[in-house]
């Protein structure tokens, strides 16, 4: 009977012990699984954080590259603007030079100054004192250029930077072509400015009148001057 009771006790002990071992094993397994999951989540978080850092660094580099390219583009745009201004200025200079050389037809407002020989008075002395000479014409031409005339012609003969005017007996020679009086000096430019320059007190007009020259001045709304054709022009 006693042996039978011991067997029962041992059975109960082994049962409890087995349960405890099984419970402990299960608990340990669950904890191990939990630790494994936590480790994986931690590793995943670290990977994501590293990827985020990489992306931020890459974004920073791209922004720096963008700023550099924008700076370069801005400098190129400024350079292009400066080049365009320079080209425009050069184009204006070329056009002005062509105008001075008579290589381009021009038209615009301006004035016409007519110089004619005075009526000879035998009692007054030499007849040359009543004739228009090259210095009279030159004085008018120089005053017009100084006052901003863009183009000038004498009796339709357009002047250039290489033009010359000289007396040849009773006529005046302009660039090898002879013209008798009266001499019509046409000038394209601001008409009011040119009129004031010619009519200024003690200026060109007064000098011409004092030299017995018949003087006439007219404002013109439109004066047309053709191109001067050179040897190589068609």
UniProtKB/TrEMBL annotation:
The keyword Coiled coil applies. Keywords: Coiled coil. InterPro entries: DUF881. The keyword Coiled coil applies. Residues 38-79 form a coiled coil. Transmembrane segments: none annotated. Belongs to the UPF0749 family. This is DUF881 domain-containing protein.
